[in-house]
Amino acid sequence: MARVVALYRHPIKGFTPERRESVTVQPDGRVAGDRVLAFRFADAVEPEERDGFDYWPKAKGLALQDFPALAGLRTSYDDEARRIRIEHAGAVLVEAALDADGRLELTDAVSEFILSTPDGRRLRRPGRLPLALVGDGETSRFQDRPRGYVSMHGRASVRALGEALGMSIDDRRFRSNVVIDDVAPWSELDWTGEVRIGALRFQAAGPIVRCLATHANPDTGARDAKVLTTLTGSLAQQEPTLGRLLLPGWPSTSTRSDAGGGVIRVGDEVHAR
After folding, report:
1. Rounded distance, CA 136 to CA 140, Å?
2. CA 223: distance to chain centroid?
3. Where is the domain boundary, 100, 134, 168?
4. Looking at the domain assignment, is residue 8 inside a domain?
5. What is the CATH number of the domain that holds 208?
6. What is the pLDDT along the chain (273 residues), one digit of tens a residue?
């Protein structure tokens, strides 16, 4: 029986995930506390709103695909206290609240860290500094797509990719909210109908085409795995694809984008067709 084996949320877009025993899926399809903050470049505009959903392309701020050194950080978010803690190499890099002073402290610390790495040259490009920490810490708004969704992949697919690469591959490279096991490699790419995770119902949407963020080692930030060319080369995919998107609800009960919400827990059974 397919089941959930890991759950993640990413409080800051492009930064490292928090592993969770449960996540709450909001009525709009997004995971609570996921991508509620982002470090915006100086010349980037505010998030756009399209069809009632916020939209934030990763090119507007710090993201792992362009700044792989971010993978070396460990990020945690206290929702109630509204405090961000970022660690590096086992030591606290910065911990601050989301008030004006705390945001400045966080942006200064993150900027200084990136400038000390090989990625610093990218941050020094015109229009990128000073960074600004945007988001209210509550609204999940900094996703790559205007429609709310949960991202999911199968662990067997990651194992198959690792075999093709000749190395062990960590789930965290793919930045999914939900990781499942006990399904055949790549079988999640064939889903076309309803997907049930525990008590929640989703609609299988498009597969996830991957970017350079997957090349970064989730512990060191080094680009040590040629994921994209392996998917399109030895695994013969037309596009580098791993995992898929799940939209909230199911058309047989509602066509609304706010058709429901609830909690997913590690160990929940997964049924799909």
Report:
1. 9
2. 18
3. 134
4. no
5. 2.40.33.20
6. 899 999 999 999 999 899 999 999 999 899 999 999 999 999 986 655 444 446 677 788 999 999 999 999 999 999 999 999 999 999 999 999 999 999 999 999 999 999 999 999 999 999 999 999 999 999 988 888 878 899 999 999 999 999 999 999 999 999 999 999 999 999 999 999 999 999 999 999 999 999 999 999 998 889 999 999 999 999 999 999 999 999 987 544 444 444 568 999 999 999 998
267 shares a domain with 154: yes
Pairing label, strands 200-209, 194-197 = antiparallel
Q: Could you list the residue range(s) of the whole structural domain that residue 267 is in?
A: 150-272
d(CA 11, CA 37): 6
β-pair type (91-97, 83-88): antiparallel
Do residue 197 and residue 244 come from a single domain? Answer: yes
What amino acid is encoded at 121 in this protein? R
Q: Any idea which residue has 């929940």 for tokens?
A: 268
Question: What is the rounded CA–CA span in Å between residue 162 and residue 167?
Answer: 5
Look at residues 109, 134, 159 and tell me which one is the last residue of a structural domain: 134
Tokens 């096991």, located at residue: 181
pTM summary value: 0.90
| Cα dist from 133 to 62, 95, 98, 163, 190, whole Å | 10, 14, 9, 39, 39
Q: With contact defined as beta carbons under 8 Å apart, do 200 and 247 qualify?
A: no
